[in-house]
Amino acid sequence: MMTSRNEFIPYSLPMIEDEDIEYVLDTLRSGWITTGPRTKEFEAEFAKYMGCRHAIAVNSCTAALHLALDAIGITGGDEVITSPMTFAATAEVIRYFGAKPVFVDIEPATMNIDPEKMEQYLAMAAGRGAAAPKAVIPVHYAGYPCEMDYIQKMAEQYGMKIVEDAAHALPSYFKGRRIGTIGDITCFSFYATKNITTGEGGMVTTDNDEWAERMRIMSLHGISKDAWNRYSAEGSWYYEIVAPGYKYNLTDIAASLGIVQLRKADRLWRRRAYIAEMYNAAFRDIEEIEIPLSSLSGPMDQGRETLHSWHLYVIRLNLDRLSIDRGRFIEELRERGIGTSVHFIPLHIHPYYRNTYGYKPGDFPVAYETYRRIVSLPIYPRMTDSDIERVIDAVSSVVSIWRK
Ligand SMILES: Cc1ncc(COP(=O)(O)O)c(C=O)c1O
Predict the structure, then answer these.
(1) pTM of the full structure
(2) Which residue spans within 272-346 are E strands per DSSP?
(3) Most informative mutation of 67, 69, 189, 246 for ligand 1 (most atoms within 8 A of CB)
(4) Tens-place pLDDT, residues 61-89
(5) Taking a C-beta distance cutoff of 8 angstroms, is the pair 392, 278 a contact?
(6) Across the strands, what pairs with 377?
(7) Looking at the structure, do residues 324 and 303 belong to the same domain, yes or no?
(8) What is the CA radius of gyration of the chain?
(9) Looking at 218-369, which runs of residues are DSSP E strands?
(10) Is 375 helix (H, G, I), strand (E, B) or coil?
(11) Which atom of ligand 1 is least distant from the CA of 86?
């Protein structure tokens, strides 16, 4: 399971233990493998963990975002605000409706959407008599929560709904409030690299009964009752299609993995936070590297002010102090057996968004300049202390060789 001295340390590995495997095997042996009792159990435990009214399990965060935008009534021609510093999913779901993703640049410290720039956009649009965007999708980048007070204030002022992209944010807190309980609807990912995983999977949370009902129906072909009930002893053959829905349900195989993963989510988080602390201590005084902003509070069980999920540990290279660029930096780490990644190539510089909306890199200068400097280092609970040390040694050695 653990990596040894000379093995390659990948950028991410899931934390699958015997208890995960046993529960999945139990489901496989039970005779019920698609959406059923385990999915119900996962949803109930997730809602309890979050402290929200509804949790609906789906097969990806992309599906969750799609269902959320459908529930709040996004249609063609609407605008939806989001950050360019995100994965394809966040903006593509806006395009599913023929709506327009409006990017707002990020703030340098958190790499999250800049609420002041968002306010400027909203004021400008109002000034020229344009309709306000229907919704905003704040992305809690790397797991550091967005400035939700400010975003909520603007959503109220301009009549926008808030659909949070919390793919990275389990567990995260904003000023004592858990991410998953703040916006109108929140979307989580259980993709293989995420803080808890079901291989592929997602969850959508809300306190709104009507939206929850709509999302549940749309997640399974627009059928007005759970299809799995149809095959159980108390079920009946009858069902009605009330809308052309999607096939977004989570299987019980995946849900059983999710149940065990959720039960240890806080323990897994503690190990991530420990690794982040080790990196912070090692890199804080290296001038060629900028370390990420840490959570503002102490341990998770106290205070619970603003808490970073440490899904990603993203360093920014101070390129003017180095004689190599980011690409070469990554190569040098790979040669030392360290896997890394880049989160993200900002959406506005991808061909589709460039060609469709005529965006240029400089349109969102903070996102673009940040992109050129970022490297995501390995951070996951399966890393041993010696893995952490190897990453620290490799980063320190590359910097010392290539500093100007
Ligand atoms: C910020 C962000 N949003 C959404 C997604 C989509 O998640 P999923 O793969 O579960 O659809 C990802 C996945 O990596 C992500 O990083």
Answers:
(1) 0.95
(2) 289-290, 313-317
(3) 189
(4) 999 999 999 999 999 999 999 999 999 99
(5) yes
(6) 313
(7) yes
(8) 22
(9) 289-290, 313-317
(10) strand
(11) 1
b/e 19-50 (16+ beta carbons within 10 angstroms → b) = ebeebbeebeeeebebbbebbebbbebbbebb
145: in domain: yes
Domain's final residue, options 263, 278, 313: 263
Amino acid identity for residue 95 in this structure: R
Closest CA to 122 of 146, 151, 148, 85: 151
Per-residue CA distances from 340 to 224, 265, 296, 376, 379 (Å): 45, 23, 26, 6, 10
At 301, the pLDDT band (50, 70, 90 cuts) reads: very low
Number of domains present in the structure of the chain: 2
What are the residue numbers of the active site?
194
Report the sign of the C-alpha dihedral through residues 368, 278, 327, 355, in that order: negative
Q: How far is Cα 334 from Cα 316, in angstroms, rounded to an integer?
A: 17
- Residues framing ligand 1 (Cβ under 6 A): 60-62, 86-87, 89-90, 139, 165, 167-168, 189, 191, 202
Please indicate, yes or no, whether residues 373 and 226 belong to a single structural domain of this protein: no
